[in-house]
Design goal:
about 210 residues; alpha/beta; seven-stranded parallel beta sheet; 7 strands
């Protein structure tokens, strides 16, 4: 199950941080505790760049909850097109090490590129929070993938991609470390039929 934190409160924005952090933390924890009862994994989906610090605080609050001790079905999505992507991977690894349990990390390229670029232009900021060339995003994704696999003692990597070159690269990097691919329903079917059949790697269909 994927949850957007902005769906849990209508004022999920930085200016309301003091109010929304405890409220959304409590609402998310109730949902995750319910998922734990049925052993259904939960991923906190990515938001726009200006909500990232809000999201990380709430994710840390829930991940550290005593009621989830010993359960490893909770995680988050990391956007490789954000310039903070690599830092995010380290943050995830450090969080999991601190609490001595695995964290699921779904690595995506990113879903808000147009709006991030437009908002940055409107505000007249000096730089963009995202890479502005696809090639840079592709390289950043592969670097994040390597870092996630290197931290596989604490991270369960989930690679969301439909790019054959990216898939081949991850298969080369993995060296028998645990991970899974993820594909959107109806996309990449020929690619993943081959990967699952010939490589024996799990692929979760994401709907």
């Amino acid at each position: 199950v994927s949850i957007k934190l902005s769906a849990l409160h209508p004022r999920y924005e930085f200016a309301q941080a003091e109010y929304v952090i405890p409220v959304v933390s409590e609402r998310l924890l109730k949902l995750v505790e319910l998922a734990k009862q049925y052993d259904i994994s939960v991923t906190v989906d990515a938001e726009e760049a200006d909500r990232l610090m809000l999201s990380l605080t709430i994710i840390e609050n829930v991940f550290a909850a005593p009621s989830l001790a010993g359960w490893e079905g909770f995680g988050l999505a990391v956007q490789a097109y954000q310039k903070r992507g690599i830092t995010m991977v380290k943050w995830c690894s450090d969080l999991a090490k601190q609490h001595k349990k695995k964290l699921m990390v779904r690595l995506v390229k990113g879903a808000y590129w147009d709006s991030e670029v437009k908002l940055t232009q409107e505000l007249g900021l000096e730089s963009y929070p995202v890479y502005t060339r696809k090639a840079a995003t592709d390289v950043a994704y592969l670097l994040c993938a390597q870092k996630l696999l290197d931290a596989s003692d604490y991270i369960y990597p989930q690679f969301a991609t439909h790019n054959a070159h990216t898939v081949a690269s991850i298969l080369t990097f993995a060296k028998n470390k645990p991970f899974e691919f993820q594909c959107l329903h109806g996309m990449g079917q020929a690619l993943y039929q081959t990967v699952v059949a010939e490589q024996g790697v799990a692929c979760r269909i994401y709907a």
